[in-house]
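Notebook p. 47: complex prediction with TNX.
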Amino acid sequence: MAVPRIRALLVVAVAVAAATGQATPAAAATAVAFSSVVPVPVSASATAGVSYPITSGTTIYTTPGSVAATDIATQLATLVRRSTGFAVPIVAADASPTDGIALLLSGAPATVGAEGYQLDVTATSIAIRANAPAGLFAGVQTLHQLLPVAVDSSTVQPGPWPVPGGHVVDYPRFEHRGAMLDVARHFFTVAQVQRYVDQIALYKLNYLHLHLSDDQGWRIAIASWPNLATYGGATAVGGDPGGYYTQADYSAIVAYAAARYVTIVPEIDMPGHTNAALASYAELNCDGVAPPRYTGTAVGFSSLCVPLPLTYVFIDQVLGEIAALTPGPYLHIGGDEASSTTPVDYRTFINQAQPIVAAHGKTVVGWHDIVNATPLPTTVAQYWGTTATNSAVAAAVAGGTKVIMSPANLTYLDMKYRNNTRLGQKWAGLIDVEKAYNWDPGNYLSGVTGAAVLGVEAPLWTETIRTTADIEFMAFPRLPAIAELGWSPFSTHDLTAFKVRLGAQGPRWRVMGINYYHSTQVSWPAGS
Ligand code: TNX
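Predicted complex, structure tokens below:
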């Protein structure tokens, strides 16, 4: 009889917290369902009636001599210590121990590759085995989702701490699983970006694209062009406060993301979306006159001066400094909506910009408009259109161009959920969970299928987004839908089952203090 009563109390606690908007630390010290992991694993089988209890005696064992494995173990221990109050020591041990939690860079099937893992939870131990640190990290994200939601509390909770028993073999479908954050229309601090990194990493996304410049603001300090940040960075949409990252700030974001196996893709948008730069330096303008800074939301009115030799000195120095701070392979040069640049000038510009990126050792990414120039063989196009056919993109793909899929009508996290959603825009339509989930990035755009698709990315433009709460409201629950499309094999695609898995995240988001949209298209558990 005691169990139902406790459950009833927990339900009340959750309901009260929901009403007050507070986190619910004691929400449920019960085991979560083994089937609730998002993205759904390649294969997962629960062992009925078995669970592993994390206790004050639980140790984390790691592969000896691996700094990466130790760092991943430390991240897991930090999470578990905070809410359990247990010591959770980390011990380097060679073989798979028979007790505790083992994070091992050995013993995984070759089929899981570098980003996959095998997870085994028995009554006496938890083992995550991977071929490389990225896989170990992914396995720990799965384990995180299998821990009672109270583990995400920032204060010590009573427990118990059961992990449901079972076996998982898992690896990603696509190499590129991304989110984009527009820090130009509104500025977000290092801490705000890091919080988003934590959130996307939990759903196994591995790229964060930062839209670092636009008409309304320039967000990264460039030593050779200091006014970009100090003058061009001082504004934001609607007269809100601007801001910019020092190079040390940017490096801190890069390092924080790298520790979570997320690669930063910096974007400097050009030749359009450049009013903040043009306002900062008169000599970059064809007429030598700096325009005023801009805080509206129109697009397509600015262009770098294509015939001007200084333009290429400028982009070489800017991209050179950013390349030097960026360990990842990509520099994104935007290229979208350049409606104030003639088509001839556009081609000239993109064709000159690409070798500059390459000279700094990086691969070009651009919005798909760049296929109107001559993409380098390595250039990646990011598709943001709203139709399932685009002949120019299909022709580029026939010539070898690879594509990241971000159809605006399916993946744009700044689109409203419903007509009455307080935040966001509607130009690409309304996007609720079913729409975000119910498509196949590998078989959507005609002529752009199979190996041509590097993956999927969910952009969040921030004309109307001003706070962390706003970011989270637009990203959750849609971002995990896109994450599942990027990670899970399409053979697992199942809207009804997804709605249940997604709903199971709700109680955890509450404990984490994530401000999510309570979509009616999700099967939330009672009380969440
Ligand atoms: C289009 S999509 C843009 C952005 C806007 C966004 C708003 C794309 C490559 N450019 O400049 O912020 O729409 O939804």
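Notes: DSSP finds 16 helices and 19 strands in the chain. The pocket of TNX is lined by residues 299, 336-337, 367, 384, 408, 412, 414, 425, 461, 463 (CB under 6 Å).
Next step: compare against the earlier run before touching the bench.
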